[in-house]
Amino acid sequence: MADVSDENLQKEILKILEKANLAKTSTKKVRQKLEEVFDTDLTDKKELIDQYVMDYVNKMESENSDSAEEESDEKKKPEPKKRKKRKGSDSDSDWVKKKPKKQAAAGAGRGKGSGYTRAYKLSPALAELMGQEEMPRHEVVKRVWTIIKEKNLYDQSNKQYAICDEALYKVIGTKRFRTFGMMKYLKTHFLD
């Protein structure tokens, strides 16, 4: 068959869609099935097939939503469960949050002095630069950054690098270093 009439096409689409699962069926699958049935290429009627399929789907959805509304009207809403009465008084003091006892005791062991925040003993050269004998690593890095900024020790040709003054040279050990990699030079100065 070379040419398929629109009427025959619509009837065959209805047959296919009545048997099909609309959630998984696509217009492409419907068109392929029609091409098998009519043994002809239907790409020129693609838009018409799409329109027929969408009309059918919309019609089915509107019927389903109408029947769903009728069913929901017929069903009675279940009564809400009754709540149990709380024991105790109605005073505001009952609503004050009670402190958890076990968590407070467990929390005392954690906190300052562990991991990255732990205070390390500093080498004599670094302690002289920092002005303290013990400091956490992150504080040392912050202080070195402030020293570089205050004394304007940035390399003017490339600001990723800093040029050491005499005090910083004692700690870092090179005249010019990359500021984001300063921990590489500082790690030997953390004792313990």
From TrEMBL:
Residues 88-97 have a biased composition (Basic and acidic residues). Residues 60-115 are annotated as: Disordered. PROSITE patterns: DEK_C, SWIB_MDM2. Pfam families: DEK_C (PF08766), SWIB (PF02201). It comes from the Eukaryota. This is Upstream activation factor subunit spp27. InterPro entries: DEK_C, SWIB_domain, SWIB_MDM2_dom_sf, SWIB_MDM2_domain. PANTHER family: SWI/SNF-RELATED MATRIX-ASSOCIATED ACTIN-DEPENDENT REGULATOR OF CHROMATIN SUBFAMILY D. Residues 3-58 form the DEK-C domain. Residues 115-192 form the DM2 domain. Residues 63-72 have a biased composition (Acidic residues). Residues 78-87 have a biased composition (Basic residues).
